[in-house]
Amino acid sequence: MFKRYILPILIFVCCNLSVSGQSSFDWREEKNIYDQIYNAQLNLSNGERTTIHELAAKKPLLVTLIFTRCTGVCNPLLNGLKQNLRDKTKSGGFSVLVLSFDPRDSLKDMQQLSRAFDLNDDPDWKFALADSIGKVNTSVGFYPVWDEAREQFDHDAFIVGVNSQGYITKKLIGMRGLEELDLMIKSIKNEFSPTYRLPTESNLFSCFNYDPKTGKNKPGTGLLFIAMPIVLSALLIIGIRFKVRKSN
Question: Quick one: fold of 35-197?
């Protein structure tokens, strides 16, 4: 009498297994977390020379990657940051590093950009060029693509949180609001954030475990507990089917 139910149940189990293996989550924001940002030499628009780590040691950083000839997301990104951080940079204990990834940009271009946003006299906003911008891009997982037809870079709105030790604590890809920026600011100041936790040996039942050496998430024991009912159901169905066949 079980025969009529076996095939539908097996189809249901297989569908659940296939759905559980799919994920629409974009893992790019998880890559490079807890890695150090490449310590490139910086040429600031005010004429100073320093490095990313030296700048971060003074105040942790929100690093945004732009280029001055951008006709797309760069200006809205900077404008959104300025509006959202209007009252936070003065008392927040962090700085914003606006870094060009375009080799064509000059210090004059960066100075003009800072003036265009009325940020040239704000000590907590740094506009700069990097000597090794390609290595900086790679270290944070940022990969702009040059479009020859449009003479523009195809790239995401991209913000990286860097703490005072030069480690990447959080990444935001795409236009974001004040709530997520607040979480990033907490992360660079090494304050508790409820959105994620540092990897430890005691995370026994996590669904995914982040490996800072490889920058990848690996399945954890938590997934086993989630999948266990499905696996046990499948084994039970197979056992029932075997018993029915044997009785016949």
Answer: Glutaredoxin (3.40.30)
